[in-house]
Write a structure and sequence with these properties.
2 strands; alpha+beta; two-stranded antiparallel ribbon; about 55% helix; 4 helices
Length: about 90
């Protein structure tokens, strides 16, 4: 008998019933769920970066220079700060 199936008897029908013992990570529903979670994270991260870039764009040049940010780097800094939340994006850019 295969290791993927256990045979359990159903007393009402007196016929064997196959019960699947497939690990969860191989389940179609698990894979679909993981795909949707990954897609939602991408959309969520892009929204956060867009929102941060808009907030930074509203600052004056003086305020941006006080933060050490050039106006041309706003988009890159917003993306990197969402992608790597614990790291200072000004060091990368």
């Amino acid at each position: 008998m295969s290791a993927l199936f256990n045979i359990a008897s159903n007393p009402a029908q007196q016929a064997p019933v196959l019960v699947s013992v497939v690990p969860q990570r191989y389940s179609v529903f698990y894979q679909i769920n993981e795909t949707f979670k990954a897609a939602f994270k991408v959309v969520s991260d892009r929204y956060k970066a867009h929102k941060l870039a808009n907030e930074l764009a509203e600052l004056s040049n003086t305020e941006l220079s006080d933060l050490g940010i050039a106006r041309g780097n706003i988009e890159a800094i917003a993306r990197l700060s969402v992608k790597n939340p614990g790291q200072d994006p000004r060091e990368i850019v």
